[in-house]
Amino acid sequence: MQNESADRSQNYASWALPFLADYIVNTHHAYLKENDEQIAAYARKIAGVHGAHHPEVIRIAAIFAKIATDMTAHLKEEEEVFFPALKRADAARIAGDTPDAHDRETIRVSLLRLHREHVEIGDAVHEIRHLSKEYAIPGDVCNTFMVTYQKLKEFEDDLHKHVHLENNILFRRQQSCEQITFCPPALHWNISVSTVVLLTPLLVGATEEYAKETGQTCAACHSIRAVVAN
Ligand SMILES: [Fe+2]
Ligand SMILES: [Fe+2]
Questions:
Q1: In the prediction, which pLDDT does 177 show?
Q2: Which pTM value belongs to this model?
Q3: pLDDT of 226 strictly over 90
Q4: Alpha-carbon distance 59 to 44, whole Å?
Q5: Which ligand is nearest to the CA of 158?
Q6: Is 163 within the bounds of a domain?
Q7: What domain range includes position 22?
């Protein structure tokens, strides 16, 4: 089974765009819709039962509740706006036509927003991992606590695959069509909100390096620079 999934992952880049978009929806969006509410409920429960001795779970419950809310809107935009526009533009290109101008603008605007939201959700998951000490289960807790941490880890693993398919394969194809560029995704994925000010000089440096190498600038870093400059 592991070899099968490794083979599949190596082939993602060769999949037709509509098939890849549908795969993301049927696999990763379906996972989120099935699990988000349950994980949020578990996190709330352990915050109530164990919050006095393990205050980090109160913060984890609050962060996860926000992730679940933000994720609902994020998935809706991908499924109802972004992926349909992507599919239409792809079909037009395959037919040798120019994609509809409205679709191209929808894609450009959504791409920037969705990319930024991936960074924000990644930061939030990173904070949960940090607060939970890499999902280490304390010795004085109940089964629900254990299940919650297992589910949170499973959530993070699924999210990494999901965002990888979108940022590195699906979005990148469209970026090259629309000439929108980002720094290497790892730069964005690894930063946390609390360290953004410390890392900003590094990000700016990386962006300038990237611009020098490619002659293009990173749309996501521009927004970080704008926020810091304000
Ligand atoms: Fe998605
Ligand atoms: Fe996404």
A1: 57
A2: 0.75
A3: no
A4: 10
A5: 1
A6: yes
A7: 15-180
